[in-house]
Fold:
Amino acid sequence: MADHCPKSGERGAALLTVLILVAVIAVLAATALEKLRLATRLGGNAVAIEQARGYAYAAEALAMIRIGDLLQQAQGRVSLLGGWSDRPFALPLGGMVGGGSAVARVTDGGNCFNLNGLASALPGQPGVLIGNAVEVAHFAKLMRLLGIPGQVAEQVATATSDWIDNDQNPQGGGAEDALYLTRDPPYRTGGAMMADVSEFRMVNGVTPELYAQLRPWICTLPQATPTMVNINTLAPEQAPLVAMAQVDTISPGAIAQALLRRPPQGYADAGAFWAQIPGASGGGGVATTSGWFNLRITVTLGSVRVDERALVDARQGMPQLVARIWGEE
Structure:
């Protein structure tokens, strides 16, 4: 019997099938290798990130010691003496493979308008928050001093107070749930102290432009108390934070001049500060010490970078970390 010889067309089809199988296997192999490479990289990054966070925790501990030393030396008067504010100090990471660094900075955390001070605890009922009309007026004036139109300033200040207080009764020009529930998507007011400044963006009347303008001036300290700035660490350009709580005859310019004349060791008391301002007989909203500090930490390990922002409570003498946020703002 004669052997069957495949025709040329059959041989071509078989070859094409083999080539297709080879191509499919090559694609599958390449995909598997890419997934393996990605998984390896992600695993390596996860380990590096955890290691970087560990160094950040170490930098926190070092910063706490420095803040404690600062308060011990200050003896009731915290000033800029020694140049500690915003000065970078590094955590030694010698011998790191690929190179690495951890840098921390400490600044006064109370020289800002505390949005949570727009409400206050109802006497005898610490868990109940009501609007603070005095601080609403101060916040509105601060915005006017920064060039924000008066009508907008009044609306935003009142709406922010309404956002924090527990009731559903809007103050004049304010806003409660009834307004926010009509939006798409609908949402409700916080009804509690703000945990982060970013929450301010949800308040009625706060545009992205207004938020960007106010961001350097505001903060959310975890206490519903009026703003109290330290005249011994306050920068002259921050004079509106003092002027907002004073009569209109005391200008930010006069306050800035008094801050420029501040002794290196700071003013001994508020009276010595007000004595530098013509026509001023005293005013509120100022102190000569600090109870809050901001901490910023940046850790880099090779291509990995970790940023941390933290708030330190030093009101009781022993510094304590009360808030920590990872990532750039």
User: Anything to note?
Assistant: The mean pLDDT is 89.
